[in-house]
Amino acid sequence: MKNQSTLFFFCGKMGAGKSTKAKVIAADNHAVLVSEDEWLAAHYPTQIQTFEDYIKYSNLIKPFVKKHVQSLLSLGVNVVMDFPANTVKQRAWFVSLCREVNCSHELWFLDVTDEQCLSHIAQRRIESPERAPFDTESVFHHVTQYFEPPTADEGLTIK
Question: Is the full-model pTM beyond 0.70?
């Protein structure tokens, strides 16, 4: 039997507006918002100093997040995951999460120019000074080298 809940997740370069869009989608769909930044800050408040640290700790929380999200979806609760789905491998993880509980998904692809992303990142440094060490143009370019736009052959419901 098809589960009636939906998992919403996001693809877009650093600074594309994924977190902002996640809040809107959560409100519009009466969904629980699960933020990677919040989980990482709660569990590893001082350990993430480099991009490699982020990858390490992000991978450590994923099994717990997956179980939590699947529990909510199984109860029929819509969930918005503010976690990046910026590579084929990351998107496959979200799709498998959905398949295992037989729920729908929506991938929101925020196709934003590098210039717009860098402008958002500069604004974010002002609004959230604690993020300044990571919200830089050099980090943007480092992270962007891994970015893979979604393709039709991934079997995604893309918005």
Answer: yes
